[in-house]
Amino acid sequence: MHHHGYLWSGPKKRFDDEALRRPPHPDPPPADGRPELFQRHREVRAEFPVVDLPPLETAYWLVKPRKLVRGTWEEPKEAAEWLGEQLTEYAPRFDSGTDREGARLPLLVNAAAERLGRGGDVSHGFYLERPAFLSLALVCCSPNRAEPGLECPLR
Question: How far apart are the C-alpha atoms of 128 and 82, rounded to whole Å?
Fold first, then answer.
């Protein structure tokens, strides 16, 4: 097992487009459905796997393009250290004073290492200076516990 790191930062309005953040339903709308439902279903089917937006379910980062992988680590501690580096870099821009507190960041890093060590994924999101959002994720791969059928993006 190894771990992939993902980072997305961008306008909160774009982050809020949840249709492009969830995997498309495997079945199309009913035959008697409205044409705009068919159009939206086609759009989501085509765009979900390639759009850089963070998926609602962390494991689905694995279906995204390999260029979105920010790092790969064999050891949970190394992956958690990357998370800590990102948190440190972005902390001055966090909108919430509580999120900026220096004592909180090491707790998040330690919890991430522990969770990854048990085969779980880690996902954090932070509001940045308005109206931006930061999403950080560490995803276990080969296999992923939540979605074991998803293949490694680096293969």
Answer: 19
Residue located via tokens 């501690």: 77
Q: Is the pLDDT of residue 27 over 90?
A: no
Contact between 137 and 6 under an 8 Å Cβ cutoff? The reply is yes
pLDDT beyond 90 at 155? no
Q: If you count them, how many residues does the chain have?
A: 155
Q: How far apart are the C-alpha atoms of 135 and 5, rounded to whole Å? A: 11
CB 12 within 8 A of CB 133: yes
pLDDT-derived band at 7 (thresholds 50, 70, 90) equals very high
Whether the CB-CB separation of 6 and 139 falls below 8 Å is answered with yes
Sheet holding 122-127, edge to edge: 71-73, 2-11, 132-141, 122-127
Query: Letter for the amino acid at 39?
Result: Q
**CB-based contacts of 124: which residues, under 8 Å, 6+ apart?**
83, 87, 108, 135, 136, 137
At 92, which amino acid appears?
Answer: P
Kindly report, residue by residue over 117-148, the tens digit of the pLDDT.
Answer: 999 999 999 999 888 999 999 999 999 999 99
| Residue 59 to residue 150: CA distance in whole angstroms | 8
